[in-house]
Amino acid sequence: MTDTVLAAPVAATPKGPRKRDFGLKRRHAAERRFRLFGLAAIAIGLGFLALLLGSVVLKGYTAFVQTSVTFPIAFDPAIIDKDNKRASDPKVLVAANYPVVARNGLAAVLGVDVKDKKAMKELGNFLSDSSRVPLRDFVTANPAVIGQTRDFTLLLSADLDSASKGQIDLGVPEAKRKVSDRQLAWLKTLRDKGMISTPFNWGLLTFGASSRPEAAGLGVALIGSFIMMVVVLVCALPLGVAASIYLEEFARKTRFTDFIEVNINNLAAVPSIVYGLLGLSVFINVLGLPRSAPIVGGLVLSLMTLPTIIIATRAALRSVPPSIRAAALGIGASRMQMVFDHVLPLATPGILTGTIIGLARALGETAPLLLIGMVAFVSDYPTNPFEPATAMPVQIYMWANEAERAFVERSSGAIIVLMIMLLLMNLVAIVLRRRFERRW
Amino acid sequence: MTAGWVIAIVLAIGAVAWFFAVNRAHLQLKSVRGAGGQPMHSLPGYHGWLAFLSATLPALFVYVALSWGGLTLTENHIASGIAPTITQPAERGLAVGIVHQVMAALDSLALDVPPATYADLKLAAAAKNLLLPDTGTDDMLPLALEASKTAATTRLLAAIAAIALSALGAVVAIARIRPRLRARNQVEAVIFTALIGASVVAVLTTVGIVLSMLGETLRFFSSVDPFSFFFGTVWDPRFAAAGSSGDQGQFGLIPLLAGTLYIAFVALLVAVPVGLMAAIYMGEYASARTRQTVKPLLELLAGIPTIVYGIFAMVTLGPFLRDLSAALAGGEPFIQAQSVFTAGLVMGIMLIPVVSSLSDDVITAVPRAMRDGSLALGATRSETVSRVILPAALPGIVGAILLTASRAIGETMIVVLAAGVAARLSLNPFEAMTTITVKIVNQLTGDLEFNSPQTLVAFALGLTLFALTLGMNVYALYVVRKYREQYE
Q1: A273–B314 CB contact, under 8 Å
Q2: Could you tell me which residues come within 8 angstroms of residue B296 by beta carbon, excluding any fewer than 6 positions away?
Q3: Does the pLDDT value for residue B243 go beyond 50?
Q4: pLDDT tens digit string along A266-279?
Q5: How many separate domains does chain B show?
């Protein structure tokens, strides 16, 4: 019976056996669509990565050069030491009005009349307020220079620096701009005379905090971050390795070890800001450690990094094959000797890789540091871990919140510095893994 | 004698003990070998370390205990010496602080004859750039002198006790060296205890988090009704000016919670589809070479610090979206520079690699046979993915999404910079809302006074956040673990 039923349609279409419709066309179209979605997802991810990095680099690369001007300065005794007392009272040289000295030097170059108060004020804003410091240090070191004229290189103020880098919209009417047309003309004159230079901005890496963008730098933040990383390494690495050794090599599966394990997994997922609250109430309120101190930041980051290190170390220990352990025990080593003399050395590359990745995360962490008072205006280098300091990401945050454009540029420049450091750390981790990883 | 010196001396004694113990053990080893007697149980090194440990550990322990006891004694001394006319606890605390400052000033001035009155001391200290408060009284001077004496005596006692104990431990340990002494076992027992101690730190951290926040939260709830905190719809914690009336503002959690969840929801809307599709493409379609280059690049997104995302949102994306919306609407922008949308979008980008690597794990855990079976029946790859792999992996993916959501809820820097500080309830994603984490940061940066509800509320918020994320994490980890076991 079925034969005839099947045969009937065949007979009805004499052109040959008709293709059964599986919807292949539709299904293949769906397949292509699906594939396209996947590609689109990856493109979106990579596109955002490029956008993020691109915008940071575009906004920040100019922070690595700083416009300076080199011009002859006459160290006029009438301004520096009016009453000629420097022989008896060296403090005169420290307190002297050096900005006026610099301003007059610039006025001579540009042919500005020293009597013209308005022009002199604009000229004063032309140079960085921080010029006082190098001039003061130079004169106090060589008092003989007073009365002579020397070529000196000083930083331009942040507004003029921005103008020199072409970042100021000249379409805006002069009254609403921070840079006057006259200052722009001076800038052009100086440039034509070859007195303007844009050297690499070492100040970005060495200066401390300042309310003037051109004199603000990452110096204190770099030292603070470095101290914190040392604290993390000293605290978290031994603790983490010891805890993993216990959990992986000695602990029998009991309720207690189960509890520890769940605990560690959860700690790895606790929001970082909660660690900041912990640090604030335990390290600062209970133990009485100072606020803004890198030691507290380091301890908080250690607790935060500990689970990462433990998880990485346990994975590294687990990847050492059991035969190594059996061989060590077989020739009479104690369990402790087996772990410390045989298993641990073989697991070291994995442990180090995990540690470096944990350190990189700690280096970029901001939120807990805000709570323990690392948001501070610190202009002097800290000499020990108990003195106030800032950290790289916190410095970035503080600059980003400043109103002045030049601070935002610095902020992006600092991000580039931070990203380069993170990239280096990750590269080291990758190289370690590639070189020393063993396949058993 | 400072603590650093005491510790250094104790460690030096330990090092000497190590040296002598190793030598003695070597001598014994030689003589035993010559006599053909019973061999040494432990290697000389273990004898050395045993001597080191017995010279240092008890001494340091006693030193810490005695120093702590001395500190408490000094504090008690000061507390009981404060004039009984001062009754208010806060004022007594202030007076104790002044006595401490007086002690420090006396220490650094190092005068032969202590000044007679507080005013004299204040003058002498001011000459050395030490500023003392005006509210000190003359009776604090003898008290400070007494307290300094107590402190110095207890410090000296502790140091002497520690060093004596250290020497004693060293001598005893060296004298105890015998061929049959099980030095290795004893050293290993100490190491074993240290290992256990290290793994207990993880538990202690959790306990510390909970206890510290719980304590401050309870203090907060003593001045603010818990009901009005958890169910209040207005967040307005006026910073009380000094001497103002008892009005302390309203601490309603609801607007913060709504903002947190809203932003996390937007972030998941971005991250989950993109991350999941990326993981599927990488696992099912991409060639090995593509995977090798694309995967680390995507993971780079996860390695970028959140502050960088925050600044990208604030400086670049926020203004761009505002200008774009102004151009689209012809004038007034309908997207604020700081908005739920901006913060959620940027957070979503950050979470893409999180979703993709978590779901990658989950998808590769689906057994090969299920995939092959589906393909062999003639299903296309996309059909295999959507009808076989995804249903099979669903519990794991749900777990992954939960873990991601808990990251989104606890994220701080992006929302601090991009979401705004206005606590309001609104459904418009283009307006600013604020989150729990933003408010924790806001309440705790700047000058703090630790007894006001305005700062204590941060701990209540933190505890809420901790409980929220902990619940999600525990459940997600449970789901993922359960799911893995199903296919093992």
Answers
A1: no
A2: none
A3: no
A4: 888 899 999 999 99
A5: 2
Separation of alpha carbons B430 and B450, rounded Å: 36
Distance CA B115, CA B137 (A): 13
3-state DSSP call for residue B136?
coil
What is the torsion angle, in degrees rounded to the nearest 10, for the CA atoms of residue B404, residue B406, residue B407 and residue B408?
A: 90
Nearest-CB residue to A367 (from B194, B308, B413): B413
In A, which residues are within 8 Å of B277 by CB distance? 37-38, 40-42
Structure tokens at A222: 């770099």
Cα–Cα distance, B480 to B363 (Å, whole number): 12
CB contact, 8 Å: A49 with chain B? yes
B381:A238 CB<8 A: no
Given B181, B202, B219, the domain boundary residue is: B181
Concatenated DSSP letters of B336-351: -SS-HHHHHHHHHHHH
Residues of B in contact with A272 (CB under 8 A): 410, 412
Range of the domain at B450: 250-486
What's the rounded Cα separation, in Å, for the pair A60 and A415? 8
Query: What domains are defined for chain A?
Result: 63-201 (no CATH), 219-436 (1.10.3720.10)
CATH number reported for the structural domain that contains residue B384 in this entry: 1.10.3720.10
Q: Find the closest chain B residue to A413 by CA distance.
A: B308
A245 reaches B (C-beta below 8 A): yes
The reply to whether B262 falls in a domain is yes
What are A80-122's pLDDT values in tens digits?
777 777 777 777 777 778 888 888 888 888 888 777 888 888 8
pLDDT digits (tens, 9 = 90+) for B207-227: 888 888 898 899 888 888 888
Residue B366 CA from chain centroid, whole number: 37
Classify residue A376 as exposed, middle or buried by CB count within 10 Å of its CB (0-12, 13-18, 19+).
middle
> Is the model more confident about A114 or about B305?
B305
Same domain, B319 and B466: yes
Question: Quick one: A237 exposed, middle or buried, by C-beta within 10 A (0-12, 13-18, 19+)?
Answer: buried
Last residue of a domain, one of B181, B215, B242: B181
B471 to A271, A417, B209: CA distances (angstroms): 13, 38, 15
Q: Assess if residue B385 is contained within a domain.
A: yes
* Count of CB atoms situated within 10 Å of the CB of A437: 12
